[in-house]
Amino acid sequence: MDAHSPENLYPYTVSRPIYSNPTFEEDNERQAREERTLRERLSRTCGSVWTRQALKVVKGVFPVIDWLSRYPIREWLPSDVISGVSTGLVCSLQGLAYALLVSVAPVYGLYSAFFPILTYFLLGTSRHISVGPFPVTCLMVGSVVLTLAPDDHFLLPGNGTGVNGTEADGIVFLPIQVVMGLLQVGFLVRYLSDPLVGGFTTAAAFHVLISQLKIVLSVPTNNHSGCFSILYTLIDVFTNIRQTNRADLVAGLLTIVIVMAVKEVNSKFRHKIPVPIPIEVIVTVVAAGISYATELESRYGASIVHSIPRGFAPAQPPNTELLWNILGSSFSTAVVGYAVAVSVAKVYAAKHDYTIDGNQELIAFGFSNVFCGCFSGFVASTALSRTAVQESTGGKSQVAGIISAVMVMIVILALGNLLEPLQKSVLAAIVIANLKGMFMQVTEVPTLWRQNRADCFIWLATCLASVVLGLDVGLLAGLVFEMGTVVFVVHLTFDMQVGFDSVRVFKKRNKALKKIHKLIKKGKLRATEVSLGVDNKGFESEQDSGRESGQVEDGDWPVPEVEVRVDWALELPVRVSVPKVQIHSLVLDFSAVSFLDVVAVKSLRLVIKEFLRIGVNVYIAGCDDEIVRKMEALSFFDEEVTRDLLFLSVHDAILFIKLETANGSMQDAMVEGVRDPEIKCLTAIMLSVIHPRLSAHP
Length: 698
Fold this sequence. Notes:
By secondary structure, the chain is mainly α. 56% of the residues lie in helices and 5% in strands. Strand 8, helix 25 and strand 9 form a beta-alpha-beta unit.
């Protein structure tokens, strides 16, 4: 009904005396206008806005300000303390052990287990990861150290070249990771697919095993890095195998067996054991006591840790002459360390229902590494085993990380000298025992071969290249092979004659049908199938050129971003409250999708579950039988994402949505407020994954 029609006109009466200016001023007091300077006006107008923006920026750079002010002390602090103590003990021992991978004295491993935690507490966004040494990045830094200090005394504290190399490596991480974070290029890690990361970490496990084997056997070897370093090291080991120290060998083998056995018990009975048995701590303390009591070094020639000086090394700038020599290797190490840390952080963020900021993680690890490098530490990332301890023992936030740093500090200041009799073979054995998870990734190869052979080839190529050529060159080779595989699969197209595009028929039915049927009869209409890959862009026909001129079609309805607000005051798992969105259903048009890889299927399932979580139903239309079989092979369907979301066409899906809406089965209350049924259809019409490229042949 027209608002200006006579039926909608109402009287509006005003009754007051006739005022002249003098009369009005007599009855009403004039208020003097407040005079403000230009500075005061700008301050009043923009001050509050600038203050809010500045506070937002500060909270973005220092997330601790946001969550620490709402930290529930009574509910979370006891759990964080228990978790921090347990994690701190494990972190101390892993720091000592992983220092052998970096080819520096064990005390520098303690520094690397302490300093990065302090910076990450202020800048990081993950609540559960344990920041510190990671064997893969440690080995990559160790290869750099060996190129800078290729002598036989790299484990002696007096040798400063290797230490300077680790410092310089940490300093280089600042511009690499921080600049990547500021430029918002954290998305580049998405190109490190799961098969590529799996093959790379498995190859790194082989490198770690060989590097620690010579320490367990305690045989003299030359230090090798680069291509065929594993082969050269094995030749040296078997050449000098007769010089094996029996005391070190026995201690190493016993440690491997005991640690792996107890870890299996922890894994099998994790639901019954409230706190995992800290077997690394127990074995280390017992081994140090036995070595001290039996004088293994003097009587049997065992190789021990020797000196662990108390206190911290003074801060010092790195040797700038070394920076340019390690720039290339530092970039690959920075990418690997960040990719591993973010992957682990996402696992626990999804488990506990909160989000992390990938670009902020780059900044956090960049500053953590440079801060650690100034105090003679080496590169920090995270380790899944250590993070699992922190989470399984009840860790709720990075307060547990600070408690673990306090435990490491106690070891550095007071307890370090008690570990001086410890055999190095015990530390090397602890490293080897923690490689089981990486080696078990080999069992994924047969599954990948059955699911997607392209991903299987990526896994094998990356693993083989990293084993033979070295980790840094192998990672680059794996990336090149992956991108080449994606390009090959994407452009491996074939033609298929089609009748019509169901989406356009739905929107412009009569006109489209007449035109399309004429083209089909003449044999001039074809659609080229394409693959859904990392470098795909939406294809468009000449009829779509109106979009470039700013025209918006009927189905292109804007959808606002959903801001997720996490209530930190609640006990985990946290609840996520989201505002109402303007759609209740989403139809994905898969009619032109001819290929899905493992990563795409996992991502699609995650996206669908995220939409279901905020009350938006998702449907897939026009999905090819081969794609459906691929989804079934990759376990795409479960109790939440069922086969009922599949429809033959977009039109079928739209009719189903209209029927469900008419029957009142839609759960979204927004549906009740929509007046026009056609608007509901258009609101929920589709999110086209990829548009077919139409071409007319003469």
